[in-house]
From TrEMBL:
Name of this protein: Uroporphyrinogen-III synthase
Taxon lineage: Bacteria, Pseudomonadati, Bacteroidota, Flavobacteriia, Flavobacteriales
Annotated GO MF terms: uroporphyrinogen-III synthase activity
Gene3D superfamilies in UniProt: 3.40.50.10090
InterPro entries: 4pyrrol_syn_uPrphyn_synt_sf, 4pyrrol_synth_uPrphyn_synth, UROS/Hem4
Organism of provenance: Pontimicrobium aquaticum
Length: 248
């Protein structure tokens, strides 16, 4: 069956040169965007209940842009002036670049991993005498605490924001040829909103092994998977699939 409509379970890209817009134009398909999950901040009061005193920490580990936003939001709510001496350990260049929204980059001690959390290990180990705070979501990958525990550093995890299922009830009678997912939480949201969901002819595209497993655990069929050596991005995987089925 040909692909004419795609629903991506993420917010619409804010950049004009997004590969999704190129895909839409090039393959003449309609692509809609709708976050199946969203992030809500945890109040300063709740964080205090987690026995977190920001003044106790000399280094912050930031795994995402959400972590950056919510750390500084909470610091502001607590009227805590983040000292210039604070060290920032960022999981990727994208996170480090986003940090500039809150600090003067060249005047701060910022350490950057390549992409995965494990890439930060040598940097954290080098500064093992610091007191590390990990502001994070309520759905943290087990690899992160495992890595920090293996390093034997002084660290504390605190939930600064939560992943919440979005209300998708308005999509009940709307059907797409392809649904695109990037996390197990997206699959959880699908079944929370539509407990009787049947895949039928709907193609499911997924990014990452944990998402693939979440789809298969629900008895669904994975039709498009990324990343692969041939299609390292979701848009490339979609384009390859569309080119194959739409030319028939």
């Amino acid at each position: 069956m040909k692909v004419k409509t795609i629903l991506v379970s993420q917010p619409e890209p804010k950049v004009e040169n997004s590969p999704y817009f190129d895909l839409q134009e090039k393959q003449r398909v309609k692509i809609d965007f709708r976050p199946f999950i969203h992030v809500e901040g945890v109040s300063a009061k709740e964080i205090r209940l987690q026995k977190v005193d920001l003044s106790n920490y000399t280094a912050i580990i930031l795994t995402s842009r959400n972590a950056v936003d919510h750390f500084f939001r909470v610091a502001d709510e607590m009227r805590f002036k983040v000292p210039d001496t604070m060290k920032y350990f960022c999981q990727s260049e994208a996170v480090a670049y986003y940090l500039q929204k809150y600090v003067v980059y060249r005047k701060r001690k910022i350490y950057v991993g390549k992409r995965n959390f494990s890439d930060l290990s040598p940097l954290i180990k080098k500064y093992k005498d610091e007191k590390f705070l990990l502001p994070t979501t309520d759905k943290l990958k087990p690899q992160v605490p495992e890595t920090l525990n293996d390093l034997g550093v002084n660290w504390k995890q605190a939930t600064f924001y939560k992943t919440v299922i979005s209300d998708l009830s308005d999509l009940e009678n709307v059907f797409y040829d392809v649904l695109v997912f990037f996390s197990p939480s997206g699959i959880e949201s699908l079944f929370h909103n539509f407990p009787n969901f049947k895949q039928n002819n709907t193609r499911i595209a997924v990014f990452g092994n944990t998402t693939i497993k979440a789809v298969e655990d629900k008895g669904l069929r994975v039709d498009i998977a990324a990343p692969t050596p041939e299609t390292p991005s979701m848009t490339m995987a979609l384009e390859k699939y569309i080119q194959t089925v739409n030319k028939k």
